[in-house]
Amino acid sequence: MSPQKYLRYFGLNLNSLFGTQRTKEILSVNPTVLPQREEATDVEVTVYDYDATSIQVHHYKAVGPCKKFKNDGRIAWINIEGLRKSDVESICTTYNVHPLLIEDILSINQRPKMDEVEGVLFCLLNMLFYNQEKKTVETEQISIVLGKDFVISFQEDAHRDVFDPLRSRLNMANSKTRQRTADYLLYSMLDLIVDNYFLVMEQLGDQIEMIEEEVIRRSNTRSLARINQLRKELIVLKRNLAPVRDLVGGIIRSESDLLDDRTTKYFKDVYDHIVQAYDLGENYRDIVMGMQDLYINNVNLKLNEVMKVMAIVTCLLAPATVIGGIFGMNFEVIPYIHHKWGFYFAVGAMLFIPIWMLWVFRRRGWF
């Protein structure tokens, strides 16, 4: 019988008690099951229509007005925050995005990847954020479509992203983003996403440092729980870093006409950053595994200390037990059994022998 049935009457949840809910969230990925995405209630569309000399920023509540930015001779960044199937299909049809890519945009828990399909370059990856309250790494899926003079980005949450520095650069007339083609805009977006990975990893690094000090100074079962939680968050980190490395590598190897040769060196810089982030994540994983071994060693050391004290006490009591056992036997003739100093001799022996044993143990360095 499941204990969940009885614990619910006391207002308890096994998942929250043992932290298994987070494990379920991380591992609940089944590509054979069609995910059901909740339709966004509000959709915010921001369009940055720009060239080297001017920029226009438009805000819409629907994707319909975005049709006019197709083939207008300028570069358009269409950022859609909040996903609705009808809106995604509408704008993708307008900009000739393949239906398979539409399915990927509307997917949930998709593995980061890069595809080239019918004249567009498609990137799907996750933005990472660190939740200070829950001490967890949160993800937000973002899909980026690069076409001829346009970039379309699809975000799930309208209240957070990492593109504020890019928006600031777009408003600067002499910025490289304004002077270059749409592929440089794609590079800028990927660069900001990867750079934000390091901010998340810094937060995890601080947590690792705190737990490491706790394990060394005063390790307990709570320390083991926090180590286990960190291992789960590092799984989330690794699940995103490794595919993004392959994603950027695929862009570098691509021979698409949408990518300017001058921009390749910038994507190589992003590749170097994501490789560094991946290596750092592996180092974090090694440290956490080392902390778990250190915790187990501390537990064993404490157990050995307790067992050593108990063994010493047992050895010190052994002479008194033997002497008391001998003089407690029911024989008629026992030496000194009726001597007036017999009791004191026995008690003296019980005290002297343990003291002598302590001296011997100390001399040999046993404690």
Q: Which descriptors would you attach to this protein?
A:
367 residues; alpha+beta; Beta Polymerase, domain 2; seven-stranded mixed β-sheet; 11 helices; 55% helix; 15% strand
Gyration radius (Cα, Å) is 34 Å
If you consult CATH, what is the topology of the largest domain? Answer: Beta Polymerase, domain 2
> Which secondary-structure class do the elements indicate?
alpha+beta
Distance between the termini: 49 Å
Element-level helix/strand string: HHHEEEHHEEEEHHHHHH
Question: How many beta strands in the DSSP annotation?
Answer: 7
The main pleated sheet reads as:
7 strands, mixed
CATH superfamily of the largest domain: CorA soluble domain-like
Query: What would CATH call the class of the largest domain?
Result: Alpha Beta
Uncertain residue segments: 6-17
- Secondary structure: helix percent: 40-55%
What is the overall pLDDT average? 85
How many domains, in number, for the residues?
2
Strand order of the largest sheet: 2-1-3-7-6-5-4
**SS field, number of helical segments:** 11
